[in-house]
């Protein structure tokens, strides 16, 4: 749009802005209008934030998740019915909470770290920001060609496998650089670039307290890799952060283990290792007590066998020395009872020893067994008294045969128990079993593209709204013509709306597509022209008490549309039957001659200097009754030229020939020309452009003219954008720069 074009709202003064006047009432219409006013700002900021979100999606490392299921059973009976009596030795009910703790224990995770060498991290070195993303998208199994002429970075297809890495304590957690060489050679450097180790793939290498074995290396010579050896504890803690295990449903006994990470190939291996080590320790734990009891029995069996052999030998020797001796039925009954009591007493004593490994002597279970042992001892004493009444031979043969049978039964039962424990140990399967082996997700669980873009969109909208709020909070420009009347105390004669037609005309004239065309002529129905017709009426009243029929058009600063007002106002005045003359008194940057399609030369400068007469400079236009006087040649001293008596004479002569004389003057805050001209005109109008001036700038312009003896009659408020229901934001501060322009 032409910088001099004044956009106007219809002649009625717009309603107050709640945002400007401090109205606490929320006006949804104004909020919507403000958003529409800044729609391009909202669109640009939102687009940029979504672009940033898309860029982050491109460079972000995808995170995958592996999961597995296992079941922990609450077994209360052994695997074999025949071993039911051994159940106290084989375990009790299972606590799910305890199993969860075991799955997270250092005992399990440390085994996994050691098996898979998780405390060694070896990764290619990528170009910052986008390098990793580019390499990740390289699908070809061959090595990617280096980009941007950089050979040290990995671009895709590089492989490194570290079999072992041992470093001093001070280098734990410190990054070391491995540089690939030719023919499988490599060298390991510290942060300062000092060579620590040189070696070849497939062969152990050592140097400076460092031992390194690289089992595989696929890379271009010069490609760098980062090697880090972590402490065992640090690796376990890092594994715990990405590893989670929980009971899938309450009291179900089904545990779900998940592991998250960037390496989709490594995740299921690590999770399987955790599950398998847990199952293995579970089986080992269930067979531990049985194995402990078995070891005890195996140490007792040789002793019992010796006792049995000794008892048999003694019994046989006695019978041979005494001849065949038969026991009476009563004696045999006593013998059987004694043998049973001895067997039960020994079993209770074994049970007591097992209980004492877990409980104190005061425990009810231990005391109950002690009580049973005492009862059996009392019965044994009673049988011993009965035996003492038998003949000596019967007593001796009874005692010897008792020793044989007790030793034989005890040895036989311990031998059977040992065999049963061996079978139980071999058949132990544990309380836990794997339901689903570890499997990694096909798609990464993060980042989620749709969610990131949606958040980016939301952040863009919120950011743009915050920016709009900040802009409007810092806004100091006058956008409401009513504010001029309230704070300056002068009337607004007309409010001129923004004209797209004038903007189009201005562009075409600058590009040479049009020549000498005006909005009031080519688009007489335009809203801006209609507003100027309203101004035409008010000018009549402004000049009623003036001694001259001349009107000065000026403004506070450049590019506010005063020339647009001057030339189009002249046209509508002439169209009403008035004889109108327009003088372009802006001797520095005047350009009215372009819009009327006439040359600059032979104008004000020539008349004042005395080289031309009024008839030479007065140029008619295609509009009947309208004449134009151009600036003429640009003088080196415009202000001095305007102060010359010939300029006042020019205004007087033209004023006598025409009904209304319109003088287009430079902005008052830029130069003093308007103050000089204003003393020779009948009335002065100040043009203010919407969103262009702070109120103090307009007030200063009015005072500047008043100090020169020029009284401003009122304002023309220009370039008000009515299509968005609100006012356009302008530039803060004062604009005083004003220079020659061709």
Mind explaining what this structure looks like?
The protein has 742 residues and is of the alpha/beta class. Among the domains are: 18-60 and 447-474, no CATH class; 120-229, no CATH class; 297-431, no CATH class; 545-713, Rossmann fold (3-Layer(aba) Sandwich). The chain is 47% helix and 16% strand. It contains 25 helices and 20 strands. A hairpin with a 5-residue loop joins strand 16 (619-620) and strand 17. Helix 6 (106-116) crosses helix 9 and helix 9 runs antiparallel to helix 12 (392-427). The chain starts with 17 loop residues before the first helix and ends in a 22-residue tail after the last strand.
Q: Can you identify the CATH class of the domain at 545-713?
A: Alpha Beta
- Helical residue percent band: 40-55%
Tell me the CATH topology of the domain at 545-713: Rossmann fold
Which structural class do you get from the secondary structure elements? alpha/beta
Shape: elongated
For the secondary structure, the number of strands is 20
Q: Please state roughly what percent of the residues sit in beta strands, choosing from under 5%, 5-15%, 15-25%, 25-35%, 35-45% or over 45%.
A: 15-25%
What is the gyration radius calculated from CA atoms? 54 Å
| Oligomeric state of shown chains | single chain
CATH architecture of the domain at 545-713: 3-Layer(aba) Sandwich
The strand order across the widest sheet is: 13-20-19-14-18-15-17-16
């Amino acid at each position: 749009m032409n910088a001099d074009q004044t956009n106007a709202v219809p002649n009625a003064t717009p309603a107050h802005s709640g945002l400007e006047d401090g109205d606490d009432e929320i006006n949804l219409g104004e909020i919507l209008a403000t958003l529409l006013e800044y729609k391009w700002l909202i669109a640009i900021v939102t687009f940029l934030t979504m672009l940033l979100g898309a860029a982050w999606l491109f460079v972000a490392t995808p995170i995958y998740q592996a999961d597995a299921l296992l079941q922990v059973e609450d077994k209360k009976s052994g695997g074999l019915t025949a071993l039911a009596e051994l159940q106290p030795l084989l375990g009790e009910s299972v606590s799910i909470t305890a199993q969860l703790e075991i799955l997270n224990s250092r005992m399990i995770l440390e085994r996994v770290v050691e098996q898979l060498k998780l405390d060694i991290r070896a990764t290619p070195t990528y170009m910052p920001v986008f390098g990793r993303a580019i390499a990740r998208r390289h699908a070809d199994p061959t090595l990617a060609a280096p980009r941007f002429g950089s050979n040290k970075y990995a671009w895709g297809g590089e492989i490194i496998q570290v079999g072992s890495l041992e470093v001093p304590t001070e280098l734990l957690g410190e990054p070391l650089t491995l540089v690939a060489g030719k023919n499988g050679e490599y060298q390991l450097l510290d942060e300062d670039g000092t060579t620590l180790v040189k070696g070849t793939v497939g062969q152990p290498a050592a140097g400076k307290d460092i031992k390194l074995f690289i089992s595989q290396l696929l890379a271009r010579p010069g490609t760098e890799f980062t090697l880090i050896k972590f402490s065992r504890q640090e690796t376990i803690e890092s594994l715990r952060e990405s590893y989670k295990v929980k009971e899938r449903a309450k009291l179900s006994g089904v545990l779900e283990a998940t592991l998250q990470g960037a390496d989709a190939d490594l995740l299921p291996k690590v999770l399987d290792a955790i599950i398998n080590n847990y199952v293995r320790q579970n089986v080992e734990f269930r067979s531990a007590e049985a194995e402990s009891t078995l070891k005890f029995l195996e140490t007792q069996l040789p002793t019992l066998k010796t006792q049995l052999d000794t008892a048999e030998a003694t019994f046989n020797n006695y019978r041979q020395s005494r001849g065949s001796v038969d026991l009476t039925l009563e004696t045999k009954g006593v013998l059987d009872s004694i043998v049973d009591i001895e067997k039960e007493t020994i079993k209770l004593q074994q049970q007591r020893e097992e209980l004492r490994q877990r409980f104190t002597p005061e425990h009810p279970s231990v005391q109950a067994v002690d009580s049973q042992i005492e009862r059996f001892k009392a019965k044994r004493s009673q049988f011993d008294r009965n035996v003492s009444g038998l003949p000596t031979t019967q007593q001796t043969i009874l005692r010897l045969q008792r020793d044989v049978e007790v030793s034989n039964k005890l040895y036989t039962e311990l031998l059977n128990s040992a065999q049963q424990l061996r079978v139980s140990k071999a058949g132990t399967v544990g309380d836990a079993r794997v339901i689903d082996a570890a499997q990694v997700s096909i798609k990464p669980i993060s980042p989620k593209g749709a969610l990131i873009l949606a958040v980016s969109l939301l952040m863009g909208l919120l950011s743009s709204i915050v920016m709009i709020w900040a802009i409007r909070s810092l806004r100091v420009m006058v956008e409401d013509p009513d504010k001029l009347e309230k704070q300056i105390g002068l009337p607004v004669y007309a409010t001129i709306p923004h004209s797209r037609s004038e903007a189009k005309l201005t562009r075409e004239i600058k590009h040479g597509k049009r020549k000498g065309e005006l909005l009031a002529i080519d688009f007489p129905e335009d809203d801006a022209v209609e507003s100027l017709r309203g101004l035409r009426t008010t000018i009549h009243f402004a000049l009623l008490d003036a001694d001259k029929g001349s009107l000065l058009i000026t403004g506070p600063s450049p590019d506010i549309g005063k020339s647009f007002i001057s030339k189009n106002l002249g046209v509508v005045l002439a169209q009403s039957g008035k004889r109108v003359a327009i003088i372009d008194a802006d001797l520095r940057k005047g350009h009215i001659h372009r819009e009327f399609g006439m040359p600059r030369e032979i104008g004000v400068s020539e008349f004042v200097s005395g080289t031309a007469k009024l008839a030479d400079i007065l140029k008619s236009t295609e509009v009947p009754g309208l004449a134009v006087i151009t600036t003429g040649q640009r003088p080196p001293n415009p202000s001095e030229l305007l102060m010359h008596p010939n300029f006042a004479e020019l205004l007087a002569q033209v004023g006598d020939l025409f009904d209304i004389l319109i003088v287009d003057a430079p902005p008052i805050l830029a130069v003093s020309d308007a103050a000089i001209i204003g003393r020779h005109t009948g009335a002065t109008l100040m043009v203010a452009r919407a969103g262009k001036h702070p109120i103090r700038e307009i007030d200063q312009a009015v005072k500047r003219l008043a100090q020169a003896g020029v009284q401003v009659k009122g304002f023309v408020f220009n370039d008000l954008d009515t299509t968005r229901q609100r006012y356009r934001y302008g530039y803060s501060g004062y604009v005083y720069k004003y220079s020659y322009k061709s």
